[in-house]
Design brief:
With 293 residues, the chain is mainly α. It contains 12 helices and 3 strands. The protein starts with 7 loop residues before the first helix and ends in a 5-residue tail after the last strand.
């Protein structure tokens, strides 16, 4: 049956189902983790990120509006973001919710197309040196396919199915873009995580999933699965510490000049930098050799 619109209740259920699906498959995603560092934590980091948002969403009233849901997802994912993939995921969600939160009425295919486009724009903007063959590439494939089918269907279920199938195709091509993935015999872990989220959302949309209980995952690194990439020969890890921190600006603003100077400083001490300046919060992820940063 054709479904041309999504209300706030269905969007909430879809998001929670996507989060839960990611949480259930986090160890599998950990096993794929070889880039940028083969440390086997992509699934854990993405799960902690999306579950932080899911916890805020689940606490909202059952009559929460799209604006309220979008604010909870954006705030929860940004503050709970962990790791390179988690911070990028938070920006994909933030961009998506900028469009959905500003929507008057219900979500249509056209709204989804605009939301996917904004998600990709936000994520690429946050990453200082974007690398293709990663979650960014998969996200861009999603956005491109959404724009392509704009004139083909106004059925959200059909649109989501086509988009997810294309996302899986793009994901399958990531080893051709990053030699380290091909050497390990895996697809990109962050891209896989993103597809898993979309699959969970689609399952809720089609009625395959009807329970949306969210429990907070444990971040016990002793249970981390060793990445297949850990066995890759000649892995050159220049910066050994993965660090995230939040700067609370209070009533101050983070000027363009300050942002540029801060990025230059971060580049001088590390790599894999993702920086997000959002209202009164600056979120930073960086790989560095300074454990006390």
């Amino acid at each position: 049956m054709s479904q041309n619109q999504l209300d706030a209740k269905m969007f909430k259920e879809m998001f929670l189902a996507g989060a839960k699906n990611l949480e259930s498959k986090k160890e599998y995603i950990n096993e794929l983790n070889v880039f940028p560092v083969p440390d086997g934590d992509t699934g854990t980091n993405m799960t902690l990120t999306i579950m932080s948002a899911a916890k805020e969403v689940a606490s909202l009233d059952e009559n929460a509006t799209l604006k309220e849901l979008s604010k909870a997802i954006s705030s929860g994912s940004l503050r709970g973001a962990r790791g390179n993939s988690g911070v990028i995921l938070s920006q994909l969600l933030r961009g998506l919710c900028k469009v959905i939160g500003a929507t008057e009425g219900e979500i249509t295919v056209d709204v989804l197309i605009a939301a996917f486009e904004k998600a990709v724009e936000s994520a690429y903007k946050a990453v200082m040196k974007p690398k293709e063959g990663t979650i960014l590439t998969v996200a861009k494939g999603i956005s491109d396919k959404a724009a392509e089918i704009a004139s083909q269907t106004d059925d959200i279920e059909e649109a989501m199915r086509i988009i997810i199938e294309h996302a899986e195709y793009v994901l399958s091509k990531t080893p051709d873009m990053l030699p380290v993935l091909k050497e390990a015999g895996v697809v990109d872990s962050g891209g896989q995580g993103l597809v898993v989220v979309l699959r969970g959302m689609y399952d809720a949309l089609t009625g395959k999933v009807t329970e949306f209980d969210i429990s907070e995952p444990k971040a016990d690194i002793s249970e981390k699965t060793q990445a297949k990439g850990a066995a890759i020969d000649n892995v050159d890890i220049k910066f050994g510490y993965c660090t995230e921190f939040i700067i609370l600006l209070g009533n101050k603003t983070f000027t363009i000049k300050q942002e540029q100077d801060f990025k230059s400083y971060l580049e001088s001490i590390g790599d894999s930098i993702v920086l997000v300046a959002d209202d009164d919060v600056v979120k930073v992820h960086v790989h560095t050799n300074d454990p006390g940063l």
